[in-house]
Amino acid sequence: MHPSPPAAQPQSPRDLFVSFTWLALQGFGGVLAIVQREMVEKKKWLTPEQFLEDWAVAQVMPGPNVINLALMIGDRYFGLRGALAALAGMLTIPLVVILALAVLYAHFAGNPQVAAALRGMGAVSGGLIAATGIKLVPQLRKHPLGFATCLSFMALVFVAIAVFKIPLGWVLLAVGGVACVWTWKKIAP
Amino acid sequence: MTITMQWHDWLALFGQYALLSLLSISGAITTVPDMHRYLVVQHSWLTDAQFSSSIAIAQAAPGPNVLFVALMGWNVGLNAGGGIGAGPSAWLLGFFGLMLTMVGIMLPSTTLTYFATRWGHRNRTRREVRAFKQGMAPVVVGLLIATGWVLAAGNHAGNAPAWHLWLLTGVSALIVWRTRIHLLWLLGAGAALGAVGFV
Q1: What CA–CA distance (Å, rounded) separates A42 from A62?
Q2: Residue B88, in any domain of the structure
Q3: Interface test with A, best of B176, B179, B182, B198 (most A CBs within 10 A)
Q4: Which member of B91, B142, B163, B184 has the lowest number of beta carbons within 10 Å of its beta carbon?
Q5: Within 13 Å of residue A130, how many CA atoms lie on the same side as its CB?
Q6: Domain count, chain B
Q7: What per-residue confidence (pLDDT) applies to A91?
């Protein structure tokens, strides 16, 4: 994988704030699927390769993944100001919305239809996140380990997390560790 | 529910969230069991119902999932102020609790990420940095698909058969993969199907 520069970039910290606010407000049940759609497919601030690499880093650092990702994108273009603008965009308005919802919820907590609608949205958001992963699979064709090896690592992680419910830290350490060391050997100069 | 919070209680709450921040590898949601132990079992600052509705509302609301932490702080503050019916003084305390838990959960992890990713970016041509980023790629893809699976599976609690839910998840994944339809339409359809009793 040789990263090529993305086709576009944010114009200003204000652009970052507005973009991440809009992005966060579309993310019901999590923002990740929206990040991929907005940042990679629509705005083209990130290439699919960059998204995959940045996401890997955001994933292994402590803290919410999408927040880490916003921080990294903001910092890359406008330094600390950009990082703070992206972070503020991600949190400010959604915080107001969620408080309003919490107050509303106090009134409708007993309504079974409200609970069922939330369930339906939850099922859809699971599909959205899975599709985000599926769309990244073709990127692995250019991987130094080869496509088949990558698919095996992928399947291993899926089974460990979804079927055996092994704590994520261990999976990242074991499977991720082996994958990184193997890649390190393959990309020998 | 009404509780009494001294200044050292607030400080302890902040410290606990700051500590969990550094432990929240792969997201704050992985620290939920420990938050439950601390807030509900050990200190009785929240009821079980307040704790789980904080998570459910954040899942349903737009925005990053980490906002469930804000609702927990909000509820602790409301309880300290005598409940939501006690008026503006309780709301102010709720807002104070919200800010305290959010800053606690965000500040340590974002500071660490900020400096670590800067280092990584400066050294991006180094072999170990490239090996790390590329080696993690297949792991991350597998993790994304597994996260979708776990999220979908966690929703089954209704009277409708489980395969309805999986069908809905599968079809939405297929539509997102193959088309560029706006994701809000899909979420709206999911809510409607839920409301009429399909899932």
Answers
A1: 28
A2: yes
A3: B176
A4: B163
A5: 24
A6: 2
A7: 95
> Region B6-15: what's the mean pLDDT?
95
Inform me whether the C-beta atom of residue B66 falls under 8 Å from chain A C-beta atoms: yes
Tokens linked to B75: 């509820």
Tokens of B76: 């602790």
pLDDT score for A117: 82
User: Within this chain, do residues A54 and A110 fall inside the same structural domain, yes or no?
Assistant: yes
B26-61: per-residue pLDDT in tens? 677 778 878 888 999 899 999 887 887 888 788 778
* Full domain range(s) for residue A19: 1-138
Cβ proximity of B172 and B190 under 8 Å: yes
Q: A28 pairs with which residues across the strands?
A: B62
B146 and B97 in a common domain: no
Domain boundary among B119, B144, B177: B119
* B129 at interface of A, judged by CB pairs closer than 8 A: no
3-state SS, residue B25: strand
Taking residue B147's Cβ as centre, other Cβ atoms within 10 Å add up to 25
Both tokens assigned to A174: 């074991």
Strand segments, DSSP code E, in A42-159 are none
Amino acid at B24: S
- Asked if residue A102 lies in contact with residue B177, where contact means CB atoms within 8 angstroms, the answer is no
Token readout for A127 is 């599909």
DSSP code of A39? Answer: I
Q: Please identify which residue in the block is written with the tokens 């790390």.
A: B132
DSSP-derived letter for residue A144 is T
Q: Say if the Cβ atoms of A71 and B117 lie within 8 Å.
A: yes
- Looking at CA atoms only, how far is residue A61 from chain B in angstroms? 6
The shortest CB-CB distance from A180 to any of B71, B135, B171 is to B135
Distance of alpha carbon B182 from alpha carbon B161, whole angstroms: 28
Domain range holding B175?
134-195
Cβ atoms of A68 and B113 closer than 8 Å: yes
Domain count, chain A: 2
ipTM reported for the complex surpasses 0.85: no
Q: Counting every residue, how long is chain A?
A: 189
CA atoms within 13 A on the CB side of A124: 27
**What are the tens digits of pLDDT across the range B54-80?**
887 887 788 888 999 999 999 999 999
Question: Looking at the domain assignment, is residue B2 inside a domain?
Answer: no
Measured in Å, how far apart are chain A's first and last C-alpha atoms? 15
Q: Which residue has the tokens 């702080």?
A: B73
